[in-house]
Design a protein that fits this description.
Blueprint (H helix, E strand, L loop, with lengths): L12 E2 L2 E2 L8 E6 L2 E5 L4 E10 L4 E9 L5 E8 L3 E2 L20 E4 L2 E2 L3 E8 L2 E2 L1 H6 L9 H8 L3 H9 L3 E7 L4 E7 L2 E12 L4 E8 L4 E4 L12 H10 L3 H11 L8 E8 L11 E9 L6 E4 L5 E2 L4 E9 L5 E8 L5
Parallel strand pairs: 5-19
Antiparallel strand pairs: 1-2, 1-7, 3-4, 3-7, 5-6, 6-16, 7-15, 8-15, 9-10, 9-16, 11-12, 11-15, 13-14, 17-18, 18-23, 19-22, 20-23, 21-22
Length: about 350
């Protein structure tokens, strides 16, 4: 399960003339023939990023400074996580909305922003948005309405979509004999965007909030000594900076629990590396991770992390240049520890 990051995209137009656009955690983009195309700028810098991450909410507060002596008007975009269709769709979609499935909200200097929406469907690396729309099928692969619309298509369209990698046949017996249905297999890419002016020699504040897509596993995948010898576990160790003390705490927390009170893994991903697309580094980066309950266990990568409360951990960096994404692993009881 991917989760989620905030990346803003911009198409920059100087007052009366074309200009280099600006990019970052919020990121710049151009609206090309195929949709939004992300670009970079030397005019707008991200002077600070305040990031709060929990299983219930992600909040981000940016400050952007236009260092030039002219206003820069840009197209700013927020790319949401891709949704990949599957026969057994298991992704965590926190909000029941085919477009705003993270409950994304944004303000600029405290004023709400009304954003436009771009959605694209692709399979095998090919944009197939027009085809799906022409068939009258919803673009969101997670919806029951999408599967219902696919089932109603004539058989020749089933074969066509299967051959293009857009769909697969789901065959099962639900107690009434074997039946076949068409399942969406495409990738849905979604971005919100709006036009934003960065006044010359001034700083503006952009704030986002949304519900993260939290990947969960019933049980702990690395609970046995054998599992910790598997190659994939070393990837886990690197991704979440898992230490021996965390493993010992996980073993202790798992011991003696009731059968219906097993530990679960919860995973959150924040796409941080786009913060490197603005002019220069992030002058001040501040992170707060809230693990949700004092009983929960949390592991993530960071330097100089301090525990600042029963459930919160903080990190502050100056002149921060993000080179990768940020991943959080939380272990909690099946009912989420209180």
């Amino acid at each position: 399960m991917r989760l989620v990051s905030v990346t803003l995209i911009l198409i920059a137009v100087l007052a009366g003339a074309m200009a280099q656009p600006a990019l970052a955690n919020d990121s710049t983009a151009e609206l090309g023939a195929g949709g939004l195309v992300y670009v970079t700028t030397d005019d707008v810098a991200m002077t600070s990023e305040d990031l709060f991450i929990s299983m219930d909410e992600v909040r981000v507060r940016y400050q952007f400074e236009n260092k030039s002596d002219k206003d820069v008007t840009t197209l700013v975009a927020f790319p949401m996580p891709d949704i990949k269709g599957d026969i057994d769709f298991m992704d965590s979609i926190p909000v029941d909305d085919p477009a705003n499935f993270l409950g994304f909200k944004t303000t600029v200097d405290g004023a709400p922003v009304t954003a436009k929406l771009q959605q694209r469907v692709s399979a095998l690396g090919v944009d197939q948005t027009a085809l799906i729309q022409s068939l009258g099928v919803p673009l969101a692969p997670q919806l029951e309405a999408t599967r219902a619309a696919l089932d109603k298509l004539p058989r020749e369209q089933w074969d066509r979509l299967i051959n293009l990698g857009l769909a697969a046949v789901d065959t099962f017996d639900a107690g009434k004999g074997w039946e076949s249905h068409l399942a969406p297999m495409w990738v849905l890419s979604t971005a919100y965007y709006w036009e934003q002016t960065f006044p010359a020699k001034r700083t503006i504040t952009v704030e986002h909030s949304y519900k993260p897509s939290v990947g969960s596993t019933a049980g702990v995948s690395f609970s046995t000594p054998e599992s910790r010898k598997e190659p994939w576990f070393q990837d886990y160790v690197r991704k979440y900076c898992i230490e021996k003390s965390f493993l010992a705490a996980a073993d202790k927390a798992a011991a003696g629990r009731a059968e219906n009170d097993f530990l679960m893994e919860h995973r959150i991903e924040y796409i941080l590396r786009t913060g490197a697309n603005w002019a220069g580094p992030i002058s001040k980066f501040h992170l707060v991770v809230d693990k949700g309950s004092p009983k929960n266990l949390v592991s993530f990568c960071g330097d100089g992390v301090k525990k600042t409360g029963p459930t919160t951990f903080e990190m502050t960096k100056e002149d921060f240049y993000p080179e990768g994404d940020f991943d959080v692993l939380i272990l909690a009881g099946a009912g989420l520890e209180k």
